[in-house]
Design a protein that fits this description.
Strand content: 15-25%
CATH architecture of the largest domain: 3-Layer(aba) Sandwich
Radius of gyration: 24 Å
Number of helices: 16
Helix content: 40-55%
Oligomer: single chain
Number of domains: 3
Number of strands: 17
Strand order of the largest sheet: 1-3-2-4-5
């Protein structure tokens, strides 16, 4: 490493005194004016990570749905997955190091992670449309160049597109072409093939276009999607990640049954998943459901344990993962299966594999998957929404002096500390029908998040308020006690 180049470029990207940031699920996020030193150092870290794993690493400059004055940066690992947890710690150390300690911290990272600085480094860069993003991307490039790394700046792309292209590069094109054109070609071809199969089997598409209009929205970096509509009475209906996971699971389960292979399929949720979605999946659809801690990295990791793993957060971030063994078998059935029904089902599964962005939740890919399923099954948005009724729920937050006073277990569904809190929650839950509640510390601010659901909205609101009072008194709440909703 060129020590003089590090000193020179680091001086151009000074760290503001007293600023401390933590790398989390969304990487680093803050006001754009505070991030120049961070993105420069993440350029350094991406170069180190690339040298450590001998693969291309991605860096995305984005703050998703945050206000325009914010920005952020996150790294993408070789197969399009999120940065390995052990390197999140290195990212935090590097971002918060004093100027004079920077080289020392880099040396320590190299020692701990067995980084050979003489190896080549390759980094893909993408950014969102914020006015600050182009400038911050240049700071990333400065960091990469200090280590003598190579980079490709894709400019304006969605976060999932960058994940996709990193995976394509590191699989030598097996996953697809590492270009925007390759991304669009793969998804559009799979979508058209899937739709054509359905049209070949039926003389009509089957979509019943009612006066209700089907709408969907993406978040800022296009990795989350939700659907919604207004009914004839003018009532608003939100179709969130839970119902997206359910729709996809129904379709995949039907196809898997037709190919008659012993594939293990499961759905992965967090504690925020609506209780009725879990009941429907387990009791009606007979699909195993697993609950993990909040955060996409936890869902993705768990979904990798199955032949077909469906995961979605309630906020609409999710995808489907197929094991290599399952994918190989499905493609083999398409080529070799003599039974027409089995071969057709296998072909549909193959097109689903190609249509789904398995590296990360991708709103564009997810929308095409959903639209294809609705068309092939002849479902309206109202029929999809009617699969099950969400239990009324309420989400609150309480400001506390130190969120770390709350420690949880059982995928964040039960509180270990402070003493007496979980017992109080258990007693409150018993007062209401079909109810549950949990609390968890925020990952980004000193607040405790509270979730409650029950048989009616009135009861869900009351339960949430009572639990918030318990948290306020037992976990050191700040300000006035929370008021009834």
């Amino acid at each position: 490493m060129d020590s003089e180049a590090l000193r020179k470029y680091s001086a151009l990207h000074p760290r503001p005194a007293g600023l401390t940031l933590q790398y989390g699920t969304a990487g680093f996020r803050s006001k754009a004016e505070q991030l120049d030193h961070v993105v420069f150092r993440m350029g350094l870290l991406a170069g180190l990570r690339s040298k450590a794993v001998t693969a291309t690493i991605g860096i995305m400059v984005t703050a998703s749905h945050n206000p325009e004055e914010d920005n952020g940066v996150k790294l993408v690992d070789p197969l399009g997955e999120m940065l390995h947890p052990s390197w999140e710690e290195y990212a935090t150390q590097l971002a918060n190091a004093e100027e004079q300690e920077l080289q020392k911290v880099i040396t320590e990272i190299c020692q701990k992670a067995a980084v050979n600085l003489h190896k080549d480094a390759s980094v893909f860069i993408g950014r969102d449309t914020r006015p600050s993003s182009e400038r911050l991307s240049q700071s990333v490039i400065d960091g990469i160049q200090v280590l003598g790394g190579q980079y490709h700046d894709y400019g304006l792309v969605t976060t999932p597109q960058l994940h996709y292209m990193v995976c394509c590069q590191n699989t030598q094109g097996q996953y697809g072409k590492a270009t925007l054109e390759g991304y669009y070609e793969k998804l559009s071809k799979a979508f058209m093939e899937l739709i054509k199969q359905g049209l070949a089997r039926s003389t009509s598409l089957g979509l019943d276009m009612k006066p209700n209009e089907r709408c969907c929205s993406f978040d800022g970096d296009a990795d989350r999607i939700v659907y919604y509509y207004k009914d004839t009475a003018g009532h608003f209906h939100l179709i969130d990640g839970d119902k997206i996971a359910t729709l996809i699971s129904i379709f995949l389960k039907e196809l898997l049954a037709k190919v008659k292979q012993d594939f293990k399929m499961a759905v992965v949720q967090t504690a925020y998943a609506n209780g009725n979605s879990t009941r429907y999946l387990q009791e009606t659809l007979k699909v195993p459901v697993h609950c993990v801690k909040t955060g996409v990295k936890h869902l993705h990791h768990k979904a990798q344990e199955f032949d077909v793993g469906v995961y979605f957060e309630a906020n609409g971030h999710g995808t489907v993962l197929f094991s290599k063994a399952a994918e190989t078998k499905i493609r083999q059935l398409v080529k070799e299966e003599k039974d027409n029904e089995k071969r057709e089902a296998a072909k549909m599964l193959e097109n689903m594999i190609d249509l789904i962005n398995q590296t990360v939740g991708d709103a564009v890919s997810d929308m095409l998957v959903i639209e294809a399923i609705l068309a092939l099954k002849g479902l309206t948005v109202q029929q999809w929404d009617a699969l099950y009724a969400d239990l009324p729920n309420r989400l609150l937050k309480i400001q506390v002096a130190d969120r770390r006073v709350i420690d949880t277990t059982d995928a964040e569904r039960r509180a270990l500390t402070p003493p007496g809190l979980q017992e109080k929650i258990d007693a409150l839950v018993k007062k209401y029908k079909l109810s549950r509640a949990f609390v968890r510390p925020s990952g980004t601010e000193d607040v405790v998040r509270i979730y409650a659901e029950a048989d009616t909205q009135e009861n869900a609101d009351a339960l949430a308020h009572e639990v918030s009072l318990a948290v306020f008194h037992l976990a050191g709440g700040k300000g006035a006690p929370p008021q009834p909703i």
